[in-house]
Amino acid sequence: MANPLIPHSAVVLDVVAENADTSTFTLQFTEEEKKGDFAFQPGQFNMLSMFGVGEAPISISSDGCSPDTFTHTIRHVGSLTKMFSRLKKGDLIGIRGPYGTGWPMDEARGKDVLIVAGGIGLAPLRPAIYEILRNRGDYGKVELLYGAKNPGEMLFTRYFDDWSKDFTVHLTVDDSSEHADWAHGTGVVTKLFEMMDSTPKDTVVMTCGPEIMMKYVASGLQQRGFDPSQTFVSLERKMHCGIKKCGRCQVGTSFVCQDGPVFPYSAVANQPAKIVGALGRV
Ligand SMILES: Cc1cc2nc3c(=O)[nH]c(=O)nc-3n(C[C@H](O)[C@H](O)[C@H](O)COP(=O)(O)OP(=O)(O)OC[C@H]3O[C@@H](n4cnc5c(N)ncnc54)[C@H](O)[C@@H]3O)c2cc1C
Ligand code: FES
After folding, report:
1. How open is the CA angle 154-87-161, to the nearest 5 degrees?
2. For residue 168, which of 33, 177, 197, 246 sits 20 to 30 Å off, Cα-Cα?
3. Cα of 4 to ligand 2 centre, how many Å?
4. Contacts for 227 with CB less than 8 Å, ≥ 6 apart
5. Is residue 249 in contact with ligand 2, taking CB distance under 6 Å?
6. C-alpha span between 19 and 242 (Å, rounded)
7. Contact indicator for 59, 122 with CB cutoff of 8 Å
8. Binding site membership of 245 for ligand 2 (Cβ less than 6 Å)
9. Are residues 77 and 147 in the same domain?
């Protein structure tokens, strides 16, 4: 049996700088039998490795219907991810995956969908957006609320006009003082609740961003009557194996690498914060 910890090699086909510290890499497996055969669920992640350096879990940010290539959108925050920032067309990296659970796309069919993202958190949600766009008739009212620190930190801005043709997009930034042309909201992403049309009835919520943001989003929506078992959050934990073998990502009785990263808010909200982090109870 093949060793599941051994990565497959993939070549960088394209690099797009999203902003000063985040890039999107288009990748393709180099082995013939893997090429054209990469299937994943929106919300799943891969383990990405620089040979001889290390590995990091990174969500897949592309459309699941193109099995030839896939993308990862990476914020260059630490030792490994800063090395990824130097990758260029033709370079090779290692990939294991896809791993983890995805966003509840089937559960959301026939219902309204509210997507709330902060900063890099839009990357794991982009495959869900593509899935909705490809099957627009299967979903009801769809709204995206997206916040970032400032306009320059927003991801995927080049797609917003297109997305706005099929669903409502509301944007906000913490600070717009250096962007006189900013025509959207100012303030934290929960401020956008005031202008959304989404209502608690038959709405599935998918949210991703810093844990403290997801906490305010999920609890704020709960106060407005949204069902916490229909509000889905994505947990970020340090990982080692990615396949439920090492225990590094364990929270309570769950392993984020296999049981998550997507969980219903109802499954984490009553767990102690010292186990589940900012999303839990203090
Ligand atoms: C399931 C899952 C999906 C993920 N998807 C993505 C993704 O799509 N894109 C992406 O860019 N990242 C994603 N991450 C986070 C990514 O795995 C980490 O940023 C990465 O492992 C950091 O590795 P490093 O060696 O570069 O940083 P390290 O050297 O380990 O850390 C260096 C410094 O950066 C800080 N740091 C680490 N992670 C973060 C962070 N996320 N934000 C801010 N500071 C941080 C550390 O606290 C430390 O101070 C995901 C994580 C998980 C668990
Ligand atoms: S990363 Fe090893 S058990 Fe989850």
Report:
1. 25
2. 177
3. 13
4. 200, 266
5. yes
6. 28
7. no
8. yes
9. no
pTM (two decimals): 0.95
Q: Which residues line ligand 1 (CB under 6 A)?
A: 45, 56-59, 73-75, 77-81, 120, 123-124, 236-237, 239, 261
Q: Which residue, 69, 99, 129, sits at the end of a domain?
A: 99
> How confident is residue 167, by pLDDT bands cut at 50, 70 and 90?
very high
Q: Is the CB of 242 under 6 A from ligand 2?
A: yes
Q: Say which range, 27-36, 85-94, 127-136, 257-266, has the weakest mean pLDDT.
A: 27-36
Measuring from atom 14 of ligand 1, which residue has the nearest CA?
A: 58
Coil, helix or strand for 97? strand
In a domain, 274, yes or no: no
Asked whether residue 69 falls in the same domain as residue 88, the answer is yes
Q: Considering 99, 129, 148, which residue would you say is the last residue of a domain?
A: 99
Query: Helix, strand, or coil here: 182?
Result: coil
Give the residue numbers spanning the domain of 187. Answer: 105-267
CATH of the domain at 49: 2.40.30.10
Q: How far is the CA of 84 from the centre of ligand 1 (A)?
A: 12
**In-domain check, residue 276:** no
User: Residue 257 — pLDDT band, cuts 50, 70, 90?
Assistant: very high
In a shared domain, residues 159 and 52: no
Q: How many domains does one find in the chain?
A: 2
Judge whether residue 271 has pLDDT over 90: no
Q: How confident is the model at residue 92 (pLDDT cuts 50, 70, 90)?
A: very high
Q: How far is the CA of 178 from the centre of ligand 2 (A)?
A: 42
> What is the arithmetic mean of pLDDT over 28-44?
92
> Is 277 domain-assigned?
no
pLDDT in tens, 39-67: 999 999 999 999 888 999 999 999 988 88
Judge if 168 and 246 occupy the same domain. yes
Shortest CA distance to 18 belongs to which of 140, 176, 126? 126
User: Whose structure tokens read 């592309």?
Assistant: 62
Question: Is 257 marked within a binding site?
Answer: yes
Residue 59, φ and ψ in degrees, nearest 5: -65, 155
Question: Could you tell me the distance, in angstroms and rounded to a whole number, from the CA of residue 247 to the centre of ligand 2?
Answer: 5
